[in-house]
Amino acid sequence: MKEKTFQHAEGMTLSEFRHGNIEVVREGLLIVVIATAEDREESLKHAEHLASLQAEVYFITDRSVSLPGITEKRILILPEQADAILSQIVAVLPILLLAEKTTSLKGADVDDFRYISKVVDRY
Question: Is the dihedral of CA 101, 62, 23, 26 positive or negative?
Answer without folding.
Answer: positive
